[in-house]
Every structure is written in structure tokens, then in C-alpha cells.
Amino acid sequence: MLDAKLLEILVCPVSKTSLAYRRDVDELWCRASRLAYPVRDGIPHMLEEEARPLTQEEVDAISG
Fold this sequence. Notes:
The chain is α+β, with helices and mostly antiparallel strands. 19% of the residues lie in helices and 27% in strands. The chain has a single domain (4-61), classed as Single Sheet (N-terminal domain of TfIIb). It is built from 2 helices and 5 strands. Strands 1, 2, 3, 4 and 5 form a 5-stranded antiparallel beta sheet that branches. The radius of gyration is 11 Å and the shape is globular. The protein starts with a helix and ends with a helix.
């Protein structure tokens, strides 16, 4: 689980926009770059090469 204050300041390294934390899959999702960054042991791995592409369905599920 991520700290709420940390989540407020984290942005996507590609698009520089805010992220949505998906607790169910332990990932940070970015609508703008269409990437999902893994969170392992409570630590976000914010490297583009570690991200996976989001499906259109996943992008649509991001509110905002």
C-alpha cells in the first residue's frame, strides 16, 4: 500500500501527469502515457522500461 502523501507528489516520468493507484493489481496507472508502473513491496518502480502498456479497457477505467 502506498502512502497517500507520496501518491500526491508522484507523476508519470513520461507524461509528467498524475497517476492512479490500482491497489487490486499494485500498479500506478497513467492515462496520458497509457503505462502501468509496478509497485513492489510498497515501492513504486517508475522506470519506463519496467512499465507495461495499458489496454484500452484499463485506460477507460481510469477516472478523470
